[in-house]
Amino acid sequence: MAPRSREDETELRSSPTLVDPEADHPLPARVGFGLGGDTLDIHDGDCNDSIQHILRRNCDTVYKLAASRTPELSKVAGKIGKMIAADMEARLLRETRAKGRGNSSRDKGCNSSSLDTWASDILRWTKSQPLPLGNESDGGGDSDESQYSDESNHTGIYADYVATFFESLMLFVAHHINEYFMHDRASRFLGPEDCRLILPIARNNKEAEGSDASSVAYVDPADFAAFEYGVFPIGSSVERQVAPAPHLVVGGAEVVRHKSDYGEAEQRLAKKTKALFFNQHNRRFAWGLTARSCTVCAYVFGMDDIWGSPGMDIASAEGRQALVSLLVDWSLCPVDRLGFDPSTRYILDGDNGHPYLRIDAYEVDENTSHARKRAYYSQQCVGAADRLTGRRTRYFAASTDPKSMGEPAFLIKDVWSTSGSSSANDTRESSVLNILHAEFDRSSEFSNSFARLISTGPVYIGQGDALVEDTTTMAFVGLPSISQARQHRRTVTKLEGSLISEAGNENQVVVAIADVITALTAAYAKCKILHGNISGRAILLQKAAAGIKGVLADFDYASIDGDSVAETPESMLFQSIDSLENPGADRSPLDVAESLLYLVCSLGTLGINRADRAGFVEDPSMLIMWWNKGAAVTIAKQKRVHLSSEMVLTENILFFMRPGPLHDLALDMYRALFLHPGTFGTTRINNAQLAAMRDDGIAAALRALPVIDGRRDPLALRL
Known about the structure:
Layout: H1 45-48, E1 55-56, H2 62-65, H3 71-100, H4 105-108, H5 114-126, H6 152-155, H7 159-183, E2 197-201, E3 224-232, E4 249-256, H8 262-279, E5 286-292, E6 295-301, E7 306-308, E8 312-313, H9 317-331, E9 344-348, E10 355-364, E11 371-383, E12 394-399, E13 410-417, H10 428-440, E14 453-458, E15 460-463, E16 466-469, H11 472-475, E17 487-494, E18 497-499, H12 506-527, E19 529-530, E20 539-544, E21 547-552, E22 559-560, H13 577-581, H14 589-606, H15 610-614, H16 632-642, H17 646-652, H18 661-674, E23 685-686, H19 687-691, H20 696-703, E24 711-712
Parallel strand pairs: 1-7, 4-5
Antiparallel strand pairs: 2-3, 3-4, 5-6, 6-7, 6-8, 9-10, 10-11, 11-12, 12-13, 13-17, 14-17, 15-16, 18-20, 19-22, 20-21, 23-24
Helix pairs in contact: 3-5, 3-7, 3-9, 5-7, 7-9, 12-14, 14-18
């Protein structure tokens, strides 16, 4: 798409920073972080299943993704890359000769320079495979043989040691970049937002927070090791960093010892990358690294695809130069090439030290084709990106003034959407809201039942002197076989209150659900519109004269007169059984009502607001957690079991809800949906059960249903 001219002189390129862009340096190394994501309906099925079906290996163009930059940066990066590679090879050669004389840098201890020490580590890495025990010609000068296993000829060096050597190579590169910027005058003409150090962060073999891995808390560092690496300002101390702010992390590295564990390393990297998306609200895509022995691979995690580079063999000069070039490219490139979103920046509040977000939203003027920008400010991410792949939707409660962030008036939805039309401002959500307001604004009863659209439009990123739409084609330029063309969009609606997942008490939830059921019924009766994506972010609690009113929002998945979107909603927790079992099939109002039942159950068990959820401790016996784990068919099977009868529902789900309005509402909704004359629970009925049925009316209706695998489905009777 052709670049659009800028509306103003504001510099859009920014670092993933917590300080004001006008500060002396855009990347502070040590700051606090207070913007978390809400885990109300975090989905973990996409990382329990294998990622191999979306992983494309041996993509040469992965290396080039970070190298997209200005000619000035390219010239400096090329110069630094050659300088580092030449110095590394010279030091490795000297180290090899010294090692033959039993005089390695490691033997010198504190007298050796950091560069020589790191070079010694890199040399050990290059010799770690396939040398068997005692095959080093070091004259017995080294005493580190314990790091090798008895099977080192087959399995290589311990993963924990490889991770240490990996970090040494990163430190070697960072040192030279620091030196260049300290002594080369040409570096003064480079934009500070495009230059940084990539430094390793203390290793962590525990699973990442939000990574959905609950079965394994710790692994043997001999077989698996891991560390992260992040962005730090030029001039930082070149050493392993400890616990920086999460938004500074660039990606993770997984190291394995056994060849058979390489797929597991990629899976572990995917889980930690998913946690990165959850914790970093300005993350578009992510980088990752894996290593086995001397082979390193780089990965790019997109919205629907994962691309892996060819292996870089650290035992060869060519492989070392390739990895050095990649690290230099990460250090000298616009932040959008690292996967960050320049239109969403972290800013440090000077008054209280708390971070907040500045989010730029755009709307295209159809007459001039210019993108009008408006800045919003948020300290509340009310819905984080909780999936590795897909739309990666985020929700922010925001205001137009940093001083009024405590009382947000707008809800921003940030999404990578496949929907849209020829108009940049037209999406399914905006179309649906326009239809609903055109129909109901004349009626006082429903005029305030649907969210008010403020703006909607693509996200724009600065490229040179122009703005370009942020799309998968632009983000992953040069990478092969993009599965799904997506456009990065932001929709802003009015928020005169809060989300239903931030209710003050259960009575407010009940009132909002009642209002929403009425509004949904009217929308279908008058406009043949079905919502399609009920969740904790789809219902707003609006202040009204009588107290609280429920308002419907988030219509991205709505169907209009049977025309629905091709994608299925990401919130598995709230999808109906039929939606999970038959994705793409036509939906009915009963599917929407069933989703409301699941929302009531989740709020009643997990908590009605953040304070409530903060004290939540996952109990293995709390079976509602299985409504959001695994594939769609697995979740559907769990729901069929748990909703098979009132007694089963009470024992497995309602037991964990507090006595009160939500508990009673959930039971009433269950009875209305599954225990009325038109249906008979959720369990499929076989012929023996059918013959034993006492209710002739239901038995006759069930006999008329088609037999699938020897059973009849009572849910088919609901229609």
